[in-house]
Structures are given as structure tokens and as C-alpha cells.
């Protein structure tokens, strides 16, 4: 379970442009559930994910993951418990390395890296099985450099790499937004399969209302660093969300 | 024939330099200008130790070790003090200029009366063994877990962090190995030419880049040639071209400008054209691009 307690974060401190994004923000994310966070641009959803992941430091507050406060850990220390998939398919992979090399690196996550050979033959079957699960034929391209893969293929690989060591928490930052609708749907499906298979607690940011409703267990809407909507996905309709969005937009325009 | 042999010998000395710069420029994606100071630094460190009566092999190895310290300085400047890598390199280079003058108290040290690693046998053979040993060690290192993290650091730092590793550690490591090799190359050069001189590092980065870029142009899209091999071949071709040009009457004073022009020509060629050999042998060129072809659409 993830608990965010009294989180505060402001930007451009002590200047005219100071923005108090989060002010004593609290949130609980249930274990083994997929929670979708939606909201207009600038509402703080990406910042929240970056604060949890450790790439943006917080001003005050605690982030408690499975009863441990991780807020003082560095990004790379948190990464041992947290898997992330970014919007940009290149962010989760090493483009000049091959699929096999990328998977072998991900397989060592959180362990001690040494002067032993990275690629070990007896692990290859495990990687092939993982790739077969994606149904993209990547298992036949183990020795292809990742830069030659399409965005969707790269994102699928990023996903497998982020999830393969069964992290306590998976952060999906609009991870299908840069893909075409068909590929996006496929990656969403594979994401859900992996989350279910490994029972990973997941937070997913999305701009796609339909995806949020279809794939998550709970939907949270943020606005200006506050939770303005919080319901189990089964009780939410797309229309309802769109109406709230319209209201918010109208407020901004007004 | 003599021209070819001297060009090969010098090419092999520069191959050590090129492998060093390959680590920062190609693997870590950092333009490390400190090598302009590290190259003569290696020469002066060697001169210091050899004049103290230390064995040439040990003196050469010490030059490598001191070179790694120069890399440590540059990498500390940009990982800890957050100075831009380019400026960090320039600052180290500037510091090393003074350090180099201080080491022996002079800007030129003759080394003729001391022993050198070339006393062990045929110069070309000794250099060949040194370069081959470095190449094999580097290739093996780059296949280890740590080696792959070094490559991944230059490729995508976010990935290295997501693996629970501090990417700065690998930048420091890369810069240390790189500068160690550059200093080693400087020490080998000093022994070869019989003196260490404060100017021997000037625009050496261009020589290193020229070697790497020429090496890259050979069968551009093929994965068969390793980066280290390319750097070595590039350095040798570069030296042969330079040797022939001077032999044909090129004024040595113009050499630096020619170096820069070679770099400009090859970089622009790489940016705008395909594999140089595929122009003549289309089939082989296609073979190597095979990787990019079968992208499954979904």
C-alpha cells in the first residue's frame, strides 16, 4: 500500500511566480489495485508521480510504501521498489543495446553489478518466455538493437523491463499517449496482464477517460494539487468525467 | 616503406588515445577536452619517473594511473559541482597546463638518455601488443555488467537510475579509464619521439576525434566491427593519410588545419551519406541494415 501524508511542494520559491502545487496533500493507494489519475494539464499528476518516483524532491511530507517512508531515499534507491514506464518510449530502454542486453540489465535491477559477464546463457529462455507473452515477435529479435524497434515495441519492452522484478509499485506516466490508437490498446492490454500476473500496485496517469474507466479499479481526478473526484471505476461513466472536465475548463476560461 | 612503418607506429600510439576518447565521446556522449592536458601530462609524469631511475614499464604504467586522476578531477567537477562537462574538461586542461610545467620545472624534457619500453624489441611489435591488449581488455570489460552500465549511462541515464544505480558513478569510471589511456598514449609518444613537450597536447582532441570518425565511416551500419577496433583502424588510417600528405610536400605547419578539415569532412560525410564502401558494393551495405527491416506492424 502507498500512503502520501501531508505532502507539500511549491515551485519557483521566493519569486513572483511561486506556485504552491501541493499543500498538505494526502492520498492512499490500495495494494494490488490499479489507480488512474486524471486531470487537466498542470493539475499536478505528473509532478505527483515524479515526487513518488524521486525525480522531483518534496518540500515536506512522507511517502510511505509498504510501511517504509521512502521520501528521503534517492531516485535510484527508490527505483528498487518502484518500476516506471514513461510517455517517451526511449526513456525506459537503452537504444544502442540489444533487446537481450536490455532485458539482462533489467534482470539485475537492485542487485550488485559486478565484473561478471552480463549475458548468461541459462537466463535466455526466461527472457524469451517474457517476450513471447507480448505477442509481438520480439523473441525472434533478441540481438536487434532497440533503436531499430517501433515505438510500440519499445514501450512493450520498457514495460516488461519495469515489471520483471515484480516492483512494489508501478508508475505509468501516460505510457500509451505517444502511440497510435491500435498499438496503445495493445500495450494497455499487455500492461493489465502483467499487473495482474505479478499483482503489482499501479498508478496510471491518463488523458484517455475511456482507458481510465476500462482498465483501472479507481479513478482520481486532480485539480490544482487537490483531489476533486475519487470513485471506484465501476461507478463512473465517461460522460460524468467529461462533464467535470468541461466545468473545470470553463472555470479556467472564465 | 619507412614512411608506412613510422605511420603505423604513430598510428598505434594514437590508437591508445583514440580508444580513450572513444569511451567519453562515443560511449558516454561527453566531449572531454581535458585530454589536451592529459596527453602531455602522461608524457611529463613518465619523464619524472624515468628520470628518477624507475623502470620504463613501471613509469609508463604510472603515467596511466596519474592520467586516471585527471579523469577523476574532470568528472568530479561535473558530477559533484555541477559544472557543464565541456567547461569541466577545459578547466582540468587549464589546471594540467600549469601542473605539467611544475612536474619537471621545464616545458621540454629530453628523454634520449633514458630507457624506454621500445628497448624490449621491435617498436611496431611492442606497440601492436600494447594496443591489442588494451583492445581485448576494453572489449571484455564492455561485456561485463559494469561495462554495460557504462554504455547505458551514455545512452539513457534514466534507465541506469531505474536499475537502482547511480549513473554518476559510471561517468566517473569512464572518464578515469579514458584519461588513463590518453596519458598512457602521451607517455608512449614521449618515449617514441625522445622528449616530452608542453605543446604535444595541443589540438590532440581533433586527432582523436578524426581517428574515431574515420573508424566509424568504415562499414558504417555494420555491428561486426567493435568500437575499439574502429578507433584503432581509424587512428592508423589517419596517420597514414597524414604521413603521405607530408611526404608529398604538405607543409607540417598546415597539418592542424588539415586535421580539422578531415574531421569536418568526415562528420559531414557521415551526416549526409551512407556507408562509404556501400557505394561500391551495394549488396554488403544492404546486408548490414537488415536489422532495421523486419519491424512487425500491429
Structure description:
- The complex is a heterodimer of chains A (254) and B (298).
- Chain A is of the alpha/beta class and 254 residues long.
- Chain A contains eight helices and ten strands.
- In chain A, α3 packs parallel to α5 (151-163) and α5 packs parallel to α6 (181-198).
- The N and C termini of chain A lie far apart (39 Å).
- Chain B has a single domain (2-288), classed as ABC transporter involved in vitamin B12 uptake, BtuC (Orthogonal Bundle), CATH 1.10.3470.
- Chain B has twelve helices and two strands, in the order ααααβααααβαααα.
- Chain B has helices at residues 2-27, 35-51, 56-79, 85-104, 123-141, 145-155, 157-162, 167-193, 204-217, 227-247, 255-272, 282-289; strands at 108-110, 195-197.
- In chain B, strands 1-2 form a two-stranded antiparallel sheet.
- The N and C termini of chain B lie far apart (59 Å).
- Residues 282-298 of chain B have low confidence and may be disordered.
- Chain A binds chain B through residues 74-77, 79-80, 83-84, 86, 90-97, 101, 104-106, 108-110, 113-119, 136-137, 141, 144-145, 148-150, 152-153, 162, 182-183, 186, and chain B through 141, 143-149, 151-152, 155-156, 158-167, 223, 291-292, 294-298.
